[in-house]
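Example record

One chain of 106 residues, shown exactly as stored in the release files.
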Amino acid sequence: MESIIQIRQNSAGTDSYGEPIIVTTEIELEAKVAARTGSKTVGAAEITVTSGLTVYLPPATDIQIADIFVVRGVHYVLDGEPFDWRNGLGLWTPGTVIDLQRQVNG
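Predicted structure tokens for this chain:
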């Protein structure tokens, strides 16, 4: 397990000019982090490569689409939607799984 940071921005109302007041919260999460890579040949000379991280979190971890995650000092955003991993044969719920890609500014 390693610690990662979940950054979330929420609106806390509006100021006297009607502009939103944004509050940023940072939550430390315990996670298991794995590299996520793969490639797919689309055409004769065309290859699409996917890379990023897969992060395994405790069950029912609250994840929102706009959350940013800091893993080992690098900022990542969600790539897809969070998935609550469950065992269909019993009550075992190993956790929430998310795929991340590096945050691109601009």
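Notes: The two ends are 32 Å apart (CA to CA).
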